[in-house]
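input
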Amino acid sequence: MEAISVDPAPSQLAIRLTAEQEILRSEIRTARTAAELTAQLVVQQFEETDRILDRLQAASAHLHAVLDAAEDLSIIATDLGGTVTLFNRGAEALLGYTAAEAIGRLNIIQFHASAELAECAHHLGIGAHVVASGMAVFAHYVSQRMFKGREWTYVRRDGSQFPVDLSVTPLKGPQGDVVGYVAAAADITTRKRVEETLRTLATVDGLTEILNRRSFMESAGRALSRAHRDKLPASVLMLDVDRFKAVNDTYGHESGDRALCFIAATGRAVLRTHDIFGRYGGEEFAVLLPDADISTALTVAERLRRRVAAAPVIIKGGEVRVTISIGVTSYCGGEDTLEDMLRRADKSLYVAKENGRNRVETMAPDWMNA
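output
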């Protein structure tokens, strides 16, 4: 009987098919797993993006709340060309524009005094045409770190100007390059007014409103130094109210104060604007006359004496007449000092008192009489 042989090929084919099916199932599982992971990542990314957006929105809201809370501080952001990109409520209050009117429409240069910008440009050697374009001065000051707490002048919508304490800092992009500026400004009008009041109190006599003794000595000393440098004449007057004690004793101290104010007012009316006039002490006054020789000084002194004698001092319940005696001297050059001149003028004043009061006297330096 003949033997029958069996072909092994079908079994091997089945094995190969089974293996390929397993590989395909594995790839499908892998693809499904990858798809699931990708989907999870996408979902996570969306969720993270939502969280970032929420944080950004919260941060933006917080930033705007902070900016709007700073109502006494003008905060303006710009691009490199100066176009406004942020305008807080403080800026609205100080400058008179709304944020809608300013953002994207106005240039920060419009809020600055053009003359001040031109002066800074000239000082920095920048052409005026560059300033007109916007930001050359800003860019220079920021690059040199010179724009921290700098006093500047802002211009309101109505054209009025006011002083501000201004700080400008660069606004940087993601790559660290400057993409704009942030300008923070505080109105310092009140501070300037207080400073001026304090300066006035430090330099001006509270009663007569002319220079006090210290300020007179400083101003007269500078003027005499200029006269010495430029070889120009200068003269000094010392004047004193005659019988002032009697005025106080008879009419009261308030009347005496009015007499001193009358002398000061008369002096301001008679003297030139560049003459230096101060209350030297008590009822005594001093004057330095720049560019005045002895002849001119004597003429001025006599005019002042006559003007005081001609008009009454108005006091409570009536009027009183006062006179003054004046001593005069001139700058003699060389080592002659303000103190020397005041001493000579005071001696001349004493002579005027001795010779009957209500008069003008002069005295040459001792070395000229030798």
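quick obs: Residues 69-193 form a domain with the Beta-Lactamase fold (CATH 3.30.450.20).
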